[in-house]
Amino acid sequence: MSIGDDRIRDGFPGQRMTVLPRPLVRRALSSYGTSALVVTDAGYFPHADRHGRDRPQGAAQLILIFCARGAGWVESARTRSGVRAGEFVIIRPEARHAYGADDADPWTVWWMHLDGYLVNDWLVISDLTEPVSVRSLGDLTEPLGLVQQMIRRMQTDVTPASMLAAAGAAWHLLTLLLVSQVRPDSATESVQSAARYLREHFADPVSVSELAAMARLSTSHFSAIFRAEVGQSVQAYRTDLRMARARELLDTTPIPVSEIARMVGYDDAFYFARQFKKTHGVAPTIYRSQRKG
After folding, report:
1. Where are the beta strands (DSSP E) in 92-203?
2. pLDDT tens column, 11-35
3. Strands 71-76 and 97-101
4. Which of 131, 165, 231, 257 suits 247 as a labelling partner, its CA being 20 to 30 A distant?
5. With b meaning 16 or more CB within 10 Å and e meaning fewer, what string describes 20-59?
6. CA dist 206 → 194, 209, 211 (Å)
7. Chain segment 177-215, per-residue pLDDT in tens
């Protein structure tokens, strides 16, 4: 893996770059409060002609590179991929890699290095197993705004407060990237539609089989993917929605409990009271009398 002797690491007109001293990084990673996530390096390279890096041993941190304009490429020990505007690169810690700007249309990139135990959590949640990945994002406005926040904080000073603020922006960015990569198939899309229907009609007596029919799935298949996608059964999800509305009515209105039961979908007020106590540990009348806020 070689990128050529004419490639340069940095020094581009208009660039911004900040790199934390490594002793400070080590202290942050072993200190309470900052060990979860540390932005160790971050920068902005506009029209980075002849930009390139080759790391045969990889880097200790997770590297993210966002291509705002132009084009470039990234290479792992196994593959080489082009990178276009609107795409971003994920390089796992310790992964051998090289990257560079396109010769004809050099990229403009925003980049960062992240360390801390949340990095591994994010990689696991993201199900990223390849050493180097190129993902599409499209609209980079919000992600690049978060990278700018990190750079601004890190360039202000290197106090724990600034490091925590930069880490907060980084975690926001990681969460945004995670959500952006969710591409639901038709089945999970149908589940989300069913969950939305339940939120809007939680008091209606619709059955699981009717919801499955709306989704054009068998009842058993629908029930299984609903639980996997939402984290609980259809009945439990609907009960939670009904109880949330019941709490709101008990807290904010003088409406009798029997009427609230009917409003949230229970014809039998005694059954509603049992369900409410099962969820909250107290009967609706006692819940209403408790001081809150």
Report:
1. 97-101, 108-115, 132-136
2. 999 999 999 999 999 999 999 889 9
3. antiparallel
4. 231
5. beeeebeebbeeeebebbbbbbbbbbbbbbebbbbeeebb
6. 11, 8, 7
7. 987 765 555 567 788 888 889 999 999 988 998 888 888
Joined together, the tokens standing for residue 263 give 């409003």
The residue whose two tokens read 């390849």 is 130
* pLDDT digits 0-9 by tens, 34-62: 999 999 999 999 999 999 999 999 999 99
User: What is the model's pTM?
Assistant: 0.66
What is the C-alpha to C-alpha distance for residues 202 and 108, in angstroms, rounded to an integer? 49
Mean pLDDT on 101-108: 96
SS3 of residue 159 by DSSP: coil
- Say if residues 147 and 17 touch (Cβ distance below 8 Å): no
Q: What count of residues does the chain have?
A: 293
Strand (E) or helix (H) holding 45? strand 38-45
Assess whether pLDDT exceeds 60 at residue 119: yes
Q: Identify which of 259, 263, 284, 264 has the alpha carbon closest to the alpha carbon of residue 274.
A: 284
